[in-house]
Amino acid sequence: MNINGISYRAIWPEQDGSSVNIIDQTRLPHDFSVIQLTDLSSAAQAISTMQVRGAPLIGATAAFGVALAMQENASDFGLKAACDVLLATRPTAVNLRWALERMQSVLSAASDIDRVKIAWQEAKLIADEDVEINRSIGVNGLPIIRALWEKKRNPVNILTHCNAGWLATVDWGTALAPIYAAHDAGIPVHVWVDETRPRNQGASLTAWELQQHGVQHTLIVDNVGGHLMQHGQVDMVIVGTDRTTAQGDVCNKIGTYLKALAANDNNVPFYVALPAPTIDWRIQNGVTEIPIEQRDGAEVSHISGLDATGKVVVVNIAPVDCQVANYAFDVTPARLVTGLITERGVCAASKDGLLGLYPEQMA
């Protein structure tokens, strides 16, 4: 995507082939900062501290993390140790495990002397594949938005939760990919952007992305969505997902389930956009089987922003020593999902729907 007229991906290897660049998402929207990952430790830290976030981007970063680790220790022990470290950084997004298992499979068959070269090749391939997958999600979601526009001939109002744009992937995004495709096709769209507490990814990332791309949008607090739906101001909801079960349950940023309930009550279509690596074919019931990450309570009790002097400051908004629970994700049952938008097409949120697009998983 273009930032101030310059094309960027969310992660890319340095030209010397020994390090990786990322956009530090913890500094957005007030400071656009590119930082360099030079070893396994810096890659793991980037994932755990959410300098990179979003399931597809976490997977790509983990793949590059393995490549960086192979430069330090390309032995079997080094490979396993690197994957163990990276796997422990975030428990919910399944793309992390998927990327590590893919890297292990490819590298286990190679000699130690060849592993560095092969690791970089595979990590770059994963990144390139992610870009094409997300572009295809945009193509497949575009007809849904086009149909709504042709029916009403007014701007299509779309509500999204959290950030599932190009910052959550290598490029294009998942939930925002159809929105970008519609905008670029000349279809008037307007996006209701949930602030997405507690880390405010909607306010700091999604709104910033849409602004950069010229897409009309309005930032709202998380609890406004239901009100807007009751008054006919939301034509559809599109969100991303960090893990989708074989039965079509979707796990996304905390608060997504409540949006799905409101959408269901008001007959608003609720779509989830996802790439194949986000599907966890090993589990069936999202509520009981998906591990839900609990993060530092300071993310809830403290908030950062610009003060009157233009300086970024962090302030406490809760009573001192207040006990805080910070659940990062929730699960939306398949029954509340209108459809899943994937790189292979749109399907019902069900086992049969998913297998119709991915028949190779029947085995």
From TrEMBL:
<dbReference type="InterPro" id="IPR027363">
    <property type="entry name" value="M1Pi_N"/>
</dbReference>
<dbReference type="InterPro" id="IPR011559">
    <property type="entry name" value="Initiation_fac_2B_a/b/d"/>
</dbReference>
<dbReference type="GO" id="GO:0046523">
    <property type="term" value="F:S-methyl-5-thioribose-1-phosphate isomerase activity"/>
</dbReference>
<feature type="binding site">
    <location>
        <begin position="252"/>
        <end position="253"/>
    </location>
    <ligand>
        <name>substrate</name>
    </ligand>
</feature>
<dbReference type="InterPro" id="IPR042529">
    <property type="entry name" value="IF_2B-like_C"/>
</dbReference>
<feature type="binding site">
    <location>
        <position position="201"/>
    </location>
    <ligand>
        <name>substrate</name>
    </ligand>
</feature>
<keyword id="KW-0028">Amino-acid biosynthesis</keyword>
<keyword id="KW-0486">Methionine biosynthesis</keyword>
<dbReference type="InterPro" id="IPR000649">
    <property type="entry name" value="IF-2B-related"/>
</dbReference>
<feature type="binding site">
    <location>
        <begin position="53"/>
        <end position="55"/>
    </location>
    <ligand>
        <name>substrate</name>
    </ligand>
</feature>
<feature type="site" description="Transition state stabilizer">
    <location>
        <position position="162"/>
    </location>
</feature>
<dbReference type="GO" id="GO:0019509">
    <property type="term" value="P:L-methionine salvage from methylthioadenosine"/>
</dbReference>
<comment type="pathway">
    <text>Amino-acid biosynthesis; L-methionine biosynthesis via salvage pathway; L-methionine from S-methyl-5-thio-alpha-D-ribose 1-phosphate: step 1/6.</text>
</comment>
<feature type="active site" description="Proton donor">
    <location>
        <position position="242"/>
    </location>
</feature>
<dbReference type="InterPro" id="IPR005251">
    <property type="entry name" value="IF-M1Pi"/>
</dbReference>
<comment type="function">
    <text>Catalyzes the interconversion of methylthioribose-1-phosphate (MTR-1-P) into methylthioribulose-1-phosphate (MTRu-1-P). Also catalyzes the interconversion of 5-deoxyribose 1-phosphate and 5-deoxyribulose 1-phosphate. Part of a bifunctional DHAP-shunt salvage pathway for SAM by-products.</text>
</comment>
<comment type="similarity">
    <text>Belongs to the EIF-2B alpha/beta/delta subunits family. MtnA subfamily.</text>
</comment>
<dbReference type="Pfam" id="PF01008">
    <property type="entry name" value="IF-2B"/>
</dbReference>
<dbReference type="InterPro" id="IPR037171">
    <property type="entry name" value="NagB/RpiA_transferase-like"/>
</dbReference>
<keyword id="KW-0413">Isomerase</keyword>
<protein>
    <recommendedName>
        <fullName>Methylthioribose-1-phosphate isomerase</fullName>
        <ecNumber>5.3.1.23</ecNumber>
    </recommendedName>
</protein>
<feature type="binding site">
    <location>
        <position position="90"/>
    </location>
    <ligand>
        <name>substrate</name>
    </ligand>
</feature>
